[in-house]
Amino acid sequence: MPQWDVLVAGGGNAALCAAIAAARAGCRVLIVEGAPKFYRGGNTRHTRNMRCAHDHATDTLTGPYSEEEFFDDLMRVTGGNTDQDLSRMMIAQSKPMLDWIQQQGVRFQPSLGGTISLGRTNSFFLGGGRSMLNALYRTAQGLGVEVRYEHEVVALDIEKGHFRSATVRHPAGTETITAASFVAACGGFQADFDWLKEGWGGKAENFLIRGTPNNRGTVTRMLIDQGVRQIGDPSQCHAVAIDARAPRYDGGIITRLDCVVLGVVVNQNAERFYDEGEDIWPKRYAIWGRLVADQPGQQAYIIFDAPNIERFMPSLYPPISDPTLAGLARKLDLDPVRFEETITGFNAAVIGGRPFDTNHKDGNTTRGLAIDKTNWAQRIETPPYYAYPVRPGITFTYLGVKVGHDARMLMADGTASDNMFAAGEIMAGNVLGQGYAAGIGMTIGSVFGRIAGQEAAKHAA
Ligand SMILES: Cc1cc2nc3c(=O)[nH]c(=O)nc-3n(C[C@H](O)[C@H](O)[C@H](O)COP(=O)(O)OP(=O)(O)OC[C@H]3O[C@@H](n4cnc5c(N)ncnc54)[C@H](O)[C@@H]3O)c2cc1C
Fold this sequence. Notes:
By secondary structure, the chain is of the alpha/beta class. The protein contains eleven helices and 19 strands. The strands form four sheets. Strands 1, 2, 6, 7, 8, 9, 18 and 19 form an eight-stranded mixed sheet that branches. Strands 10, 12, 13, 14, 15 and 16 form a six-stranded mixed sheet that branches. The chain has a three-stranded antiparallel sheet with strand order 3-5-4. Helix 2 packs across helix 3. The longest helix is centred in the last third of the chain and has 21 residues, at 440-460. The two termini are 12 Å apart. The relative contact order is 0.20.
């Protein structure tokens, strides 16, 4: 007789949704979270919102967002690289999720304004991700779920697709835990630099990890090594440009920079390398991590001038500034002559003349540059001049384990696993072959978490 009905590995949104669903189905549930209590909940701590389909405006959402529109958005951002059946199912299940998650104690607030306008599509957590997590932990523990912190899964005993036990390391030693069903919700592998290098090569050394250092993919690796089917490739992930001065891990949302559209971006050769005005910022912010990753030293600099300093949400760190372009270049360790050439060349190419409006493509362009800026082009001419250094900030990776509609893991030979389920980042690659739409990480965790918990409970019964 197994010690537990359901063992859940991980302590973020996906794990908690699974644990609550299983507990509500009458199961004895144990959560083993590798992190200490203060850091419980990995990347979920940093979140602000979740994307769910809905038919009508609500107190906190400004209008309807149909399943079809959600699906179209997903197809656009992934370039069709998604399991379409599974994604449609997830989107359909995101509708009842809006109510279900509130029934578990989570509260929403109206969307804040800002550069990534999501007021119609995304529900914002009142108090942010930590508050959301606290609500879920409170509910889970109220239902009798036992939570053990600093309990890291270090080995799995799986035989022919059947989970038997997990070995867990904790401050007092190691322990083997048996359960009728197993839910893996341990996040991606983004904090394992060796694994990142399999997709990115040596460049990965210069990446920053926006979230927890604890998502190292150890459970993903064990599952794949023991016959679970892998999905996704190691270079696909969500990566944005973040302040280069951010800590290596856990810098969170306050290190992000949304000011690319307001100026130009140069690399360490003081050269521009991409159209900063390609599309409105919400549609383009997630490409800049990859773009910067391809630049020398994986570092770039967003450059703008005095009138733009109030137009965006700053990062935690102050911008670097100087009254002259040459002085700014020296502070950034860039060749001042080359830098001035780039900026004056850019200024000379600005056509402008239309009302400046970052909410829409405003048609203010440059003309004649090797890489034109196709919207929001304005001269960088009013001192002081400002710069933010940026590096690729990895949010989470997509390579993981393959699941079916019931969140059950599939084995490499195509059979369904007997009693192993997965939710959240660890199986995000089923939905996200590439690309990202804001708020979908939490949709994946919540919807598949809930299903994984229900199905794990059915199996245990
Ligand atoms: C800065 C930032 C902002 C974000 N903002 C948003 C947002 O607003 N909306 C959105 O949808 N998404 C957002 N995301 C992405 C989102 O955080 C994730 O998609 C989501 O939280 C994943 O949930 P999860 O439960 O799968 O993983 P996590 O919440 O990361 O939980 C994984 C847990 O597994 C534990 N763990 C790892 N290995 C082991 C092991 N071997 N044994 C036991 N436990 C282990 C970790 O300690 C961790 O607690 C953001 C991410 C970051 C970094």
